[in-house]
Specification:
By secondary structure, the chain is an alpha+beta fold. 34% of the residues lie in helices and 25% in strands. The strands form four sheets. Strands 4-5-6-7 form a four-stranded antiparallel beta sheet. It is elongated and about 95 Å long.
Length: 277
């Protein structure tokens, strides 16, 4: 019995040390590619690690996602405080600050935060801020993130204006993530042309809300309508080459009398076809 126990322990020890098991990053994905047997490298398999991130992670890059349906204001403010001012707050901490320094009774009554509540909390943090009313050109001219109220899909909502480029307005939406609007569409939903700005010394400013290449990958309605129902077309020769590459090879005698390899061994590709009954 003792010999069996010692033997099992030794087997486990050597097996665990013989295999090089290392902790892999969470975003690591491995894929193996079997080499084409018709190529000289058919004896080798290629295995490679790639790092991927969920699309949702990039969608909310730099954004504090709102935890409640009524907390877009606190989430938008936290997004600016972290991504531009350089703080490190949670939405819960921001909500507690808004309740403490804002108009508590009115917040509870309307179940939302106002720009005045934001100003009082930001002042308590030691920064100057304020709500302003201006034209679209004034919003762009600020060259900094601004909290703006919008009326979208029948709901009043707070988002963070990030940038304007080539006729599109890019915003950080606490509910939907990094999205953009056509310039005219944004003007329609921008409520009362109001914006909230926080003054931050240049040396303290962060750029977590800066426009990135991923933000520019929008698809306009006209493009979607033009290509939504278009089928991709490939030549027959191209599809035959793809089918041959995915098929099984076998050696046969060429029985075609018109072929230059008549009565000689040739490589044939066996394809698997499916048909409905």
């Amino acid at each position: 019995m003792i010999e069996l126990t010692i033997g099992a322990a030794m087997m486990y020890y050597f097996a665990s040390h013989a295999l090089d098991i290392k902790e892999q990053p969470a975003e690591a994905v491995y894929y193996s590619e079997i080499a084409d047997p018709r190529e000289k490298s058919f004896t080798r398999n290629h295995r490679e690690m790639v790092k991927i991130k969920p699309a949702l992670e990039n969608q909310f890059r730099g954004i504090v996602r709102q935890a409640y349906d009524y907390s877009c204001g606190s989430a938008a403010l936290t997004t600016v405080l972290n991504g531009y001012v350089g703080l490190n707050l949670t939405e819960q901490q921001t909500m507690e600050g808004l309740l403490r320094f804002g108009e508590y009774d009115r917040i509870v009554e309307r179940r939302s935060f106002s720009l005045l509540d934001m100003k009082r909390f930001v002042t308590a943090l030691g920064f100057e801020s304020g709500g302003y009313k201006g034209e679209f050109a004034d919003l762009i001219k600020q060259q900094q993130p601004a909290i703006v109220p919008i009326n979208y899909a029948g709901f009043k909502h707070f988002v963070v204006f990030k940038a304007y480029k080539d006729g599109r307005v890019y915003v950080a939406d606490p509910a939907l993530g990094n999205i953009s609007f056509d310039q005219e569409r944004f003007k329609q939903i921008w409520e009362n042309n109001t914006l909230f700005l926080i003054n931050v010394p240049a040396e303290q400013q962060k750029n977590l809300l800066a426009l990135q290449e991923a933000d520019l990958r929008h698809v306009d309605d006209a493009t979607i309508n033009r290509y939504a129902l278009v089928d991709a077309q490939f030549s027959t020769d191209y599809m035959n080459r793809i089918a041959d590459k995915a098929s099984t090879m076998r050696k046969v005698i060429d029985r075609d009398p018109n072929s230059s390899t008549y009565n000689q061994p040739i490589t044939s590709f066996m394809r698997l076809y499916y048909k409905r009954k």
